[in-house]
Amino acid sequence: MNTIKRKDVEKEIEFLKELNNKYPKSTETKIIAQELEKRGYTLELLGTGQSANIGLREIAVKNLKSKEYLNGEYLVFGYRKHRFSSKYFVRMGYVKKIVD
């Protein structure tokens, strides 16, 4: 998994917003996914709890707290949610770990 320095997070958020505006249609999500992978993002399961709650194409700095999935501070681009039982969803997103 790639990392990003805390000082570069604001520039990266601007890039993600521009990418969102460049491909506004929901059918273009796969194009965005390819662009993010080229940029070093990794598609990961974020978790099921409140700390992992993120919407489709939402951009956020998340402090994820999970025993089974990711744990720590990440820059996240929300991708989708995956149903793993009748009640629960696992959120998925493209992530880069934030380091100081």
Sum up the structure in keywords.
24% helix, 100 residues, 2 helices, 38% strand, alpha+beta
At a glance:
The chain is of the alpha+beta class. It contains two helices and five strands.
Topology:
Blueprint: E1 3-5, H1 9-22, H2 29-38, E2 42-47, E3 59-64, E4 72-83, E5 89-99
Helix content: 10-25%
Order of helices and strands, N to C? EHHEEEE
Beta strand count: 5
Distance between the termini: 16 Å
Individual helix count: 2
Form type: globular
Mean pLDDT rating: 89
How does the helix and strand content classify structurally? alpha+beta
* Biggest β-sheet strands, sense, barrel: 5 strands, mixed
Structure commentary:
- The chain has 100 residues and is of the alpha+beta class.
- Strands 1, 2, 3, 4 and 5 form a five-stranded mixed β-sheet that branches.
- The longest helix has 14 residues.
